[in-house]
Each structure stands twice: as C-alpha cells, then as structure tokens.
C-alpha cells in the first residue's frame, strides 16, 4: 500500500512539473481536425515609469521633542509636592509649594523700609523747602549789606536739592525691594510650564529646594524625535524634510512616518558619525522615550525611471536580457541595467513603456517561444 502511495505522489509531482514548463491546448483547424498547440504559461508585468531608490536601515533611539527642567526661582524649604514620576500634568498645574514664612517676613521688612524711606523723603523735602525760604531772605540781606558772604553761602548750600534727590533714590530702591519681595510670594508656588509627563522628581516635603539644580523634569511624549548616527558615505544622500519609515520593535509598531529634522554638518569626534535628528508623527501609540527605533531611509532616489522585478532580468554569455510578450510569443531583449534595489532593477536601455515583461516563467522560454499570459495585465 505504501509503495502505491509513493508511486502516486511521484506521478502527480512529475505531471505538475511538466505542466509548469509547458502546456498543450487543443485547437480545431479548417478541416475540423484537432491540432495540439504547445505554449508556456507566463506572468507578465507592464512596463511603467516609476520611482526607485535604495534603502538604508539604521537604528536609533527615541527622545522627547521637549524636555523641560523646572527649577524654583528662589531656594526654600519644600512644604508640599503634588507629583510623582509618571504623573501626567497640564500647563499651570501645581508641581510643589515652598514654605513662604521667610518670604512673608521679607515682605514685611521691605514694606517697613519703604515707609521709612517715605518719611525720610518728606522730612528732607520740608527741610529743603524751609532752607529755600531762608536763602531768599539771606539773599536780600546780603544784597543790602546786612549779611556777610560766609553766612550767605551757608544759606545757599542749605537750600540745595541734592539731599532730596538722594532721598528720592533711596525711596525708589526701597519700593523696588518691596515689589521683588511681593513677587517672590508667587514664586513659592511652582507650576508646570508645559503639558507632559513627569520623568524626574528631585524634591521632597521638608527638604530644601535649590535653584541651582532641576527639582522636576517634564517630558512631552506627544511629540517624539529619533536620534540616529550616519556614516560619511550616507550623510550626503540625506535631505532635511525627507520622509522616512519607522518601526518600534519593543511594541511591535510599524508603518510610522518620520521626517528628517536636522543633519549635523560635523561628525561626532568620538564616534566619527554624523548625528541626524528625525521628528516622529504625533504619538498615538504607547511609545516611550528611550525605546529603540528601526529607521528605513530612501537613498539614491530616481524619479520616473523604467524598472522591472529583479527576477525578470537574466544573464547568459555575458549578456543581460529580459523576455517580453509580443503576439503571444516571447521576444528576447538585451538591456542595460542601472541601479539595483532589493526587489527591482533599473533599466537604462532596451525597454520601452507599456511593453509586457515576463516576470515568471522566463526561465522556461526562449526567443520566439509560444507563450500564454496567465497572470498580469495584458
């Protein structure tokens, strides 16, 4: 039984192989006699002008488009922290609050300084107004010869407005200090400058917050960018604004589109590679900063060129050729090829638009062979 089954399988396989290489078609002639016509079934592709390019695969890393470091405008003790790592915040949300006890004391001290400066200014003004009246009287007495020159000059000096100008400057300085102290009361409440996700929190309630290091870092995960490094052989083939294909292996997301945002004109001194930054379309996927990205960039782009599938081009006796279908016959055409991609080959000479190139079955035909198109647009 097993031998019969093996024999049957062998016969079926041989029949299928024979059918793949050649087929027969019965045809009745004028004398009503049945003629057997042999042909080879083929698949064709109509030649059209198309865009071809080579593609370069590069790996990069996801970074946030915006990463804001939030620092308090003044150092102080932290009273309350409203966020943790991973918190989603909106612009204006309160991140943390500083103790305002010292600031309120400062406000009161500067307010008192303003009051004292006002009193000093008014007193100086009254003194100078009185000195001006005395000066007018002294001037009359001096002109009448009833006051000596030394007394007259003393009265003149006492009427000078310079002390009043100094008092006015001191008052202005005191008022400026008071306004600064008042504004510091608002600085005790630290808010989010952008919408985003909190990535780092460096402050705790009861600890001191410094204005020398970030207290909170917020990243905008809606807008992401990819950083890649490119060799000197590739860098000049890239253009700012060029579209690229992106895939994120960690979350099995593909089919994303990005654009080259910037190309560094200088190579990194350590890696000797050129940094390139790619902006990613708005993030509607669970993509996180730090994930790796696979980037496919089209290089050596050629517009409106004739190209055929790689398998359609044959080599024999130092000749490169394809087969086209003309009047149900395979016609050999020698061609000159250009750029090669993974799936296509550019044809520089030898083919014209709208010709029907055999892309399957070409290994079983010769120049002048009878063929039948079984797949593809004829």
Summarize the structure.
By secondary structure, this protein is an alpha+beta fold. Among the domains are: 55-65 and 219-302, Efflux pump adaptor protein, beta barrel domain (Elongation Factor Tu (Ef-tu), domain 3, Beta Barrel), CATH 2.40.30; 72-96 and 189-213, OB fold (Dihydrolipoamide Acetyltransferase, E2P) (Beta Barrel), CATH 2.40.50; 101-186.
Explain this structure.
- The protein has 378 residues and is an alpha+beta fold.
- The protein is elongated and about 145 Å long.
- Residues 1-21 have low confidence and may be disordered.
- It has helices spanning 2-21, 101-143, 149-158, 162-186, 232-235, and strands at 23-28, 34-46, 49-70, 76-81, 88-89, 94-98, 189-191, 196-201, 208-209, 216-230, 243-248, 253-263, 274-280, 292-309, 314-316, 319-326, 329-334, 336-340, 344-349, 356-360, 371-375.
- Among the domains are: 55-65 and 219-302, Beta Barrel (Elongation Factor Tu (Ef-tu), domain 3), CATH 2.40.30; 72-96 and 189-213, RNA polymerase II/Efflux pump adaptor protein, barrel-sandwich hybrid domain (OB fold (Dihydrolipoamide Acetyltransferase, E2P), Beta Barrel), CATH 2.40.50; 101-186.
How are the secondary structure elements laid out?
Layout: H1 2-21, E1 23-28, E2 34-46, E3 49-70, E4 76-81, E5 88-89, E6 94-98, H2 101-143, H3 149-158, H4 162-186, E7 189-191, E8 196-201, E9 208-209, E10 216-230, H5 232-235, E11 243-248, E12 253-263, E13 274-280, E14 292-309, E15 314-316, E16 319-326, E17 329-334, E18 336-340, E19 344-349, E20 356-360, E21 371-375
Parallel strand pairs: 2-21
Antiparallel strand pairs: 1-2, 2-20, 3-10, 3-14, 4-6, 4-9, 5-8, 6-7, 8-10, 10-13, 11-12, 11-14, 12-13, 14-19, 15-16, 16-17, 18-19
């Amino acid at each position: 039984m097993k031998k019969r089954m093996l024999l049957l399988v062998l016969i079926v396989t041989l029949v299928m192989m024979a059918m793949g290489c050649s087929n027969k078609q019965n045809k009745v002639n004028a004398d009503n006699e049945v003629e057997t016509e042999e042909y080879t079934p083929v698949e064709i592709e109509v030649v059209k002008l198309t865009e071809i390019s080579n593609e370069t695969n590069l790996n990069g890393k996801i970074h946030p488009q915006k990463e804001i470091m939030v620092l308090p405008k003044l150092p102080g003790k932290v009273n309350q922290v409203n966020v943790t790592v991973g918190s989603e915040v909106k612009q204006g949300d309160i991140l943390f609050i500083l103790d305002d006890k010292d600031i309120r004391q400062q406000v009161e001290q500067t307010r008192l300084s303003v009051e004292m400066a006002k009193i000093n200014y008014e007193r100086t003004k009254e003194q100078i107004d009185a000195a001006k009246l005395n000066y007018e009287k002294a001037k009359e007495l001096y002109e009448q010869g009833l006051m000596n020159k030394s007394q007259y000059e003393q009265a003149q000096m006492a009427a000078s407005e310079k002390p009043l100008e100094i008092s006015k400057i001191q008052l202005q300085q005191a008022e400026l200090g008071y306004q600064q102290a008042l504004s510091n009361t608002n600085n005790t409440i630290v808010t989010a400058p952008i919408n985003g996700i909190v990535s780092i929190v460096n402050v705790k309630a009861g600890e001191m917050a410094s204005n020398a290091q970030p207290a909170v870092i917020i990243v905008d995960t809606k807008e992401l960018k990819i950083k890649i490094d490119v060799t000197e052989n590739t860098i000049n083939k890239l253009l700012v604004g060029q579209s690229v294909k992106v895939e994120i292996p960690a979350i099995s997301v593909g089919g994303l589109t990005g654009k080259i945002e910037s190309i560094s004109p200088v190579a990194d001194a350590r890696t000797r590679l050129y940094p390139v930054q790619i902006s990613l379309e708005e993030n509607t996927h669970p993509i996180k900063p730090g994930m790796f990205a696979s980037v496919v960039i089209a290089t050596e782009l050629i517009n409106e060129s004739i190209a055929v599938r790689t398998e359609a081009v044959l080599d024999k006796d130092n000749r490169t050729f394809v087969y086209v279908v003309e009047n149900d016959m395979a016609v050999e055409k020698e061609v000159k090829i250009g750029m090669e991609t993974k799936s296509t080959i550019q044809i520089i000479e030898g083919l014209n638009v709208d010709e029907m190139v055999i892309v399957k079955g070409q290994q079983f035909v010769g120049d002048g062979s009878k063929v039948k198109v079984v797949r593809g647009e004829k």
